[in-house]
Amino acid sequence: MAAIYSLYIINKSGGLIFYKDYGSAGRMDTNDSLRVASLWHSMHAISQQLSPTVGCLGIELLEADTFDLHCFQSLTGGYLNPFIYLFIYKHTRYWFFLPSTGTKLFVVCEPGTQHMEGLLKVIYELYTDYVLKNPFYEMEMPIRCELFDINLSQAIQKDRVALLGR
Amino acid sequence: MAPVAPRSGDAIFASVEHVNAELFTLTYGAIVRQLLTDLEEVEEVNKQLDQMGYNIGVRLIDEFLAKSNVSRCVDFKETADAIAKIGFKMFLGVGASVTNWDADGTCCSIVLDDNPLVDFVELPDTCQGLYYCNILSGVVRGALEMVSMKTEVTWVRDMLRGDDAFELQVKLLKQVPEEYPYKDDE
């Protein structure tokens, strides 16, 4: 069985911009993956509010009996670049300003899979290299960069080889 | 995840691929030249360079954070140090130092040890108002904005204008705490 089930990247406002699954287990269609991504975005924000002390960065690892979920959030974002939502209720317009959070990357993997933090960091570096530096990539939009795909597959492959060798 | 010590700017600079310095300098020169032709007004060119830098900065910051292992800075002083010691070294290959702090720690100067952008440049009389390296100030402004710091970045000394160094003044206008709880309804 593959060690890694799937990889998600969520933009600063909680939209899914990249999804890939590996192996047969835990496949999702587009709608499901979008829903899961925005749910995770909210859960991550709630976890920060649950913290008894300030400065909590949110869930880093979620352990369940059938999977582990490792999450990494970048430090960029914040109140200076808020997202503006319009909400109409009984013909009255309400505007909401929500601060952007960091870009989030998370992998869903077999329980007990090691070195996922390291892998997420490598993926973040690939994202900064092959997505953000692509002049035709528009920030916060879905990632369709071939170079990113290629390098990502290599990184995951390398990780699998490392896992087999343990 | 266990905190990892920040990598030095030198180490990161050494680990990435480089292009020929002259190609870089000449390319930048060609861009500035083209902007002068297109926009005609020196003031407009300054603005455009700053905007181009800003667009670079908002993307560059993620790479900086990913590769340098720098974590959250506790104050603006630490931020300025990270930019000068790691940022400039990592992306431009030059060192820089932080000086001229004001009393309340919101304004400082970053003095570049060297500036590869200006290697062959002499400003003609017609371009005296030009901040040739204005792209750099835009980069710093854009990058800091993505980590919740609104800044104003200006050149206070420019060797092309006869000063003895390249000095960028970074002034912190607004810093927003990134912690919850946010007030959603304001």
CATH class of chain A: Alpha Beta
Note the total helix count of chain B.
5
Looking at the overall shape, the CATH architecture of chain A is: 2-Layer Sandwich
Q: Assess the beta-strand content of chain B as a share of residues.
A: 15-25%
Number of strands of chain A: 7
Overall 3D shape of chain B: globular
Q: Please identify the top-level CATH class of chain B.
A: Alpha Beta
What's the shape of chain A?
Answer: globular
Structural class call of chain B reads alpha+beta
> Which H/E pattern describes the elements of chain B?
HHHHEEHEE
Class by alpha and beta content of chain A: alpha+beta
Mean pLDDT across residues of chain B: 88
The CATH architecture name of chain B reads 2-Layer Sandwich
Order of helices and strands of chain A: EEHEEEEEHH
Task: Write a structural description.
The complex is a heterodimer of chains A (166) and B (186). Chain A has three helices and seven strands; from the N terminus they run ββαβββββαα. Chain A has 166 residues and is of the alpha+beta class. In chain A, strands 2-1-7-4-3 form a five-stranded antiparallel β-sheet. Chain A has a two-stranded antiparallel sheet with strand order 5-6. Chain A is globular, with a radius of gyration of 17 Å. Chain B has 186 residues and is of the alpha+beta class. Chain B has one domain: Trafficking protein particle complex subunit 3 (Muramoyl-pentapeptide Carboxypeptidase, domain 2, 2-Layer Sandwich). In chain B, helix 2 packs antiparallel against helix 3. In chain B, 35% of the residues are buried. The A-B interface holds A 45, 48-49, 51, 54-56, 60, 74-81, 96-99, 103, 117, 121, 124-125, 127-129, 132-133, 139 and B 1, 58-63, 65-67, 71-72, 145-150, 174, 176, 178-182, 184-186.
Short description:
In chain A, 34% of the residues lie in helices and 30% in strands.
